[in-house]
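User:
Note these tokens:
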Amino acid sequence: MTRRVLACGLVVFALATAACGERAQPAAGSLSVSSLPPTTSTSPAAPVVSRCDAAVLKGEITPTDSGAGNRYGKLFVTNSGAAPCTLNGYSGLQLLAEDDSAVPTKLERVATPGPTPLELAPSGKAAANLHWSVVPAGAEPVDQPCQPEARKAAAIPPDDTKPMSLTWDYGPVCGGGRIEISAFYPA
């Protein structure tokens, strides 16, 4: 009886190890198990690239064009860190008065260019396109500034909660503070 239990135990063991990827090989009245050779990797692990955030990004807004009441600019960000970081998506943006109080801002995302993952090397740059109007809309006054004039802006990088502080010297933004913004792209 003991031999039968032992023999059944060896068969079960052999089947279990075979099912787990090991080969069972009987040898002269006993059962030996050899495992598969270990796998080794000669390539180093890929470095982990962190997300670009307000702690490593420096930002600025630069005007690019104007005409017929339309204003265009770019929000540039530069990786000021010592390591690469990734950036993907749209920035948040809030216009601010000199005392940091909010000035009406309605940020609207545009699809072109859309979000694409970017890796910014140290000192690498990315840009987002901006468009706004200085022509009063709706009930906005035509004999004075259409909205309070901003002096600063707070821009929040994609997937971050902390803002970068920027200068805004581009006058009031009409249409209730409507600014169109694209996703970031390589600059």
Observations:
- Confidence is low (pLDDT under 50) at residues 1-36.
